[in-house]
Design goal:
Blueprint (H helix, E strand, L loop, with lengths): L14 E5 L3 H24 L5 H24 L4 E4 L2 E4 L4 E4 L3 E5 L11 E5 L6 E3 L3 E4 L2 E4 L5 H21 L1
Antiparallel strand pairs: 1-2, 2-3, 3-4, 5-6, 6-9, 7-8, 8-9
Helix pairs in contact: 1-2
């Protein structure tokens, strides 16, 4: 009889909290984008009068909107996970390490995604956009969009606690 050896996960890989896209928000975002894209394409193809340049512009807009809808669909099929060391996507892609976070902003006037929060980083992150879930430009990471608001708030609270604990020990 073979003995199976189970590797223990490192304590730092333990998921403290996970944020999932809200199903109603995801469906609303996808259906809005699909309707806009399909209506634009329909309008460009059916309308007989007008300049060809305007028709092509509306057609390109509709195709672009459908492309964004597909990006939203793919991006919101995963979740965001917070461990003791990192904030990462469920695919394993690391958004940032907790040590790299300078502060967290979730105020009313903060430039942040809907139902989410904004992280200000010490070092620049990789420029990336996963519509409906998160984005990173320079030293800012925005988390939110179609995510569940209570889960995002809980993740933000936990991050604030972790940052305060880190700053107190330094």
């Amino acid at each position: 009889m073979k003995k199976t050896v189970r590797k223990k996960k490192k304590k730092t890989d333990e998921i403290l909290i996970e944020v999932y896209p809200s199903i109603p928000r995801r469906l609303f975002a996808l259906s809005s984008l699909l309707v806009l894209g399909l209506f634009s394409i329909h309008f460009a193809l059916i309308r007989s009068e007008g300049e060809i340049g305007a028709k092509l512009a509306v057609l390109a807009f509709g195709i672009g909107v459908l492309w964004v809808a597909d990006r939203v669909r793919r991006a919101t099929s995963g979740s965001l996970q917070l461990t003791k060391d990192t904030l990462r996507h469920s695919s394993g892609e690391v958004l940032t390490s907790v040590d790299n976070i300078r502060n967290l902003d979730r105020g009313v006037f903060a430039y942040k995604p809907s139902s989410g929060f904004l992280l200000r980083l010490e070092e620049r992150g990789v420029r990336r956009w996963e519509p409906g879930l998160w984005w990173c430009t320079g030293r800012r990471v925005g988390v939110g969009g179609v995510v569940s608001a209570p889960q995002a708030k809980a993740m933000a609270e936990l991050l604030v606690y972790m940052l305060a604990e880190r700053d107190a020990s330094a």
